[in-house]
Specification:
Length: about 500
C-alpha cells in the first residue's frame, strides 16, 4: 500500500542589510504572514515552512544544503522582498539539488499612492530584486518554475499547488523501483529501452526476477488470508456469474486474491513500487494476473504490461503526484486498441487484456471471468467497468536511442455511443486533441507507444515541468497542434536534445 509522505516546502526570502535592521524586521514579518496565509488557504497540498531571511552567501549556501539533506523538504520557494544581490546566491544555487520555485510577488497588492515614499520603495522592491535573482538562475542554467502574481490570489495559489505536485514527482522519481516479472515481450520495440540511462536520468531502478521466484511468494500465501480477501472482493464488487458455476467462479477469484497478496508481499519485502508482467512467461502462475494487478494499481503501485517498465514507472510517478488530491478521478495504464472513425464521433477505445486501474471507473465495478487465449492458463478473473468522462492527459515516455522523449496529449474522455456487452474488460474512450486525425498523426510522428500512462488529475504543464527537471524533451499535442508546427518542433528537439 502506498503511504503518503509528509513533505514540506521551505519558503526562503531574499534581502540584504543595506536598508537597516528595521527593514529586515519588516521583511521577516511579511514573509511569516504570507506563509501563514498560504497554509491557511486550503489550496496547497503540502505545508510551507518559513525560513529566516537570507542575506549572506554563507546563510544561503547553508540553508540550501540543509534542504538537500532534509528528507521532508521537497523543494524551496524563493521570493526577493527587497533587492538581493544575485552573486550572493551562486554557491547555494550551484549546490542545490531539489525543485525550485521562484515566486515573483510582493507583500502589498496595491501601490499606496497617498503615502508612497522612498522608504517604502526601498523596502518593497520585488520587481527589482526578483529580476536580479531570476537573471542569475537563468545564467546558471538552472531549471525552475516561475509563478507571477499576488500571493493571496487563488490562481497564484493554485499554480503553487500545481508545482508542488510536480516537485513531489521530481523528488519521488529517484525512489521508484520497478520489478520486472520475466522480460520484455519478444520482438516488441517500444516497450524496451535503456534501463541504465533511465536510472541516470530519472533515478529509476529496473530489475528483473525469474517468474517462479515470485510464484514462491504467491504459493506461500495462506488459505485463510486468501479467503478473507475473496470475502472483501465479494462485498465490494458486483459478481457477474453469467451462467458459470458459483464455486468454480469463486475458486478462480481466489487465484487472483492469492496472486495479489503474494505479489504485494514480495514488492514490499524487496522495496519495489511498480511491477511489469508478461503473458508469454507466467511460469507456475495459474492465471495471468488481472484482478490482482488492478487492485495493486488501485493501492498506488505502478504497472506496465508485456514488460513495459517505462509505463510502470510513469504510472507510479503519476499516482505519487496525485496522492491526497481532493476529488481525484484516477490514474491508470492504458492501451490504444481500436478506432471509431464515424464522422463527428471519432475516438480511440482504450483497454487492455485485463489490467486497467479501477480508480478511473465510473460507477459500478464488477468481477467477470472469461477465457483468455493469451498465456495458456485458466480463465482469469478481472474487474470490468467503463471509465469516467472528462479531460485527461495520455503520456508516453519513449527511448529514441540517443535520448528520452515524453509525449503528452490532452484527451477528452467520454462514454462510448453504445454498450459493448461481449467485451469482458475495463474500457475508456477518448478523442485526442485537437482531433483524432491530427492527434493520432502527431502521436505517430513523435514515436508514441501503444501503452500510455493516463490520468484525469494532472496537466500537460505539470508533466512538462517534470520532464524539464529531468533534462529530457517534452512534446505537447493539444488544441493548438498543427502538423506543420509539430514537425518543426520535432526537428528543433532533434537539434537541441541530441547535443545534451
Amino acid at each position: 500500500m502506498m503511504k503518503q509522505k509528509e513533505y514540506k516546502f521551505w519558503f526562503c526570502t531574499g534581502s540584504q542589510d543595506l536598508y537597516g535592521e528595521e527593514c529586515l524586521e519588516h521583511v521577516a514579518e511579511h514573509a511569516k504572514i504570507m506563509v501563514a496565509e498560504l497554509n491557511k488557504s486550503g489550496v496547497l497540498p503540502y505545508e510551507v515552512i518559513w525560513k529566516p531571511t537570507l542575506i549572506t552567501n554563507e546563510l544561503i549556501r547553508r540553508t540550501f544544503n540543509e534542504a538537500n539533506t532534509n528528507p521532508e523538504c521537497a523543494g524551496i520557494i524563493t521570493w526577493m522582498h527587497t533587492f538581493s544581490p544575485a552573486k550572493s546566491w551562486i554557491l547555494g544555487l550551484k549546490e542545490f539539488r531539489k525543485p525550485l520555485l521562484h515566486l515573483h510577488t510582493q507583500f502589498n497588492m496595491e501601490i499606496p499612492y497617498d503615502t508612497m515614499d522612498m522608504d517604502f520603495m526601498n523596502e518593497n522592491q520585488s520587481a527589482h530584486g526578483d529580476r536580479e535573482f531570476g537573471h542569475m538562475v537563468t545564467r546558471m542554467g538552472i531549471e525552475r518554475k516561475v509563478v507571477v502574481g499576488h500571493w493571496s490570489d487563488k490562481e497564484v495559489q493554485k499554480d503553487i499547488a500545481s508545482w508542488m505536485r510536480t516537485a513531489i514527482g521530481i523528488v519521488e522519481s529517484s525512489h521508484i523501483r520497478v520489478m520486472r516479472v520475466a522480460d520484455n515481450m519478444r520482438n516488441v520495440a517500444v516497450t524496451e529501452g535503456d534501463k541504465v540511462e533511465a536510472q541516470i536520468k530519472f533515478g529509476w531502478e529496473v530489475d528483473a526476477y525469474p517468474v517462479n521466484e515470485i510464484v514462491k511468494a504467491v504459493d506461500a500465501v495462506g488459505k485463510s488470508d486468501v479467503n478473507a480477501l475473496v470475502d472483501e472482493y465479494y462485498e465490494k464488487y458486483n459478481i457477474l456469474l453469467e451462467g458459470r458455476d458459483p464455486k468454480e467462479f469463486r475458486d478462480h477469484v481466489a487465484v487472483q486474491a492469492q496472486i495479489e497478496l503474494g505479489f504485494e508481499r514480495f514488492l514490499e519485502e524487496k522495496n519495489y513500487q511498480a511491477i511489469v508482467t508478461h503473458f508469454d512467461d507466467l511460469g507456475g502462475l495459474k492465471q495471468l494476473p488481472g484482478l490482482a494487478i488492478q487492485r495493486l494499481m488501485e493501492k498506488g503501485y505502478g504497472f506496465g504490461a508485456e514488460g513495459d517498465w517505462k509505463v510502470a514507472a510513469m504510472v507510479r510517478l503519476m499516482k505519487v503526484m496525485t496522492q491526497g488530491m481532493k476529488e481525484a478521478k484516477g490514474t491508470s495504464m492504458m492501451e490504444d486498441y481500436t478506432y471509431n472513425l464515424v464522422p463527428g464521433k471519432e475516438g480511440i477505445l482504450e483497454a487492455h487484456m485485463l489490467e486497467i486501474c479501477p480508480t478511473v471507473a465510473d460507477g459500478m465495478v464488477s468481477i467477470k471471468e472469461q477465457p483468455l487465449s493469451m498465456g495458456n492458463r485458466e480463465d482469469p478473473a478481472r474487474l470490468v467497468f467503463t471509465a469516467k468522462e472528462g479531460k485527461g492527459i495520455a503520456t508516453s515516455l519513449i527511448d529514441l536511442g540517443d535520448r528520452f522523449r515524453l509525449i503528452i496529449n490532452d484527451v477528452d474522455c467520454r462514454h462510448t455511443e453504445k454498450p459493448m456487452p461481449k467485451l469482458p474488460v475495463a474500457t475508456a474512450f477518448w478523442t485526442p486533441q485537437p482531433n483524432l486525425r491530427t492527434g493520432a498523426e502527431a502521436w505517430i510522428l513523435a514515436g508514441g507507444a501503444h501503452h500510455t500512462a493516463f490520468t484525469y488529475d494532472l496537466t500537460a504543464e505539470q508533466m512538462g515541468d517534470w520532464a524539464a527537471a529531468m533534462g529530457i524533451e517534452a512534446v505537447y499535442i493539444d488544441k493548438d497542434t498543427t502538423i506543420r508546427n509539430f514537425k518543426r518542433e520535432l526537428m528543433l528537439g532533434d537539434i537541441v536534445y541530441k547535443e545534451k
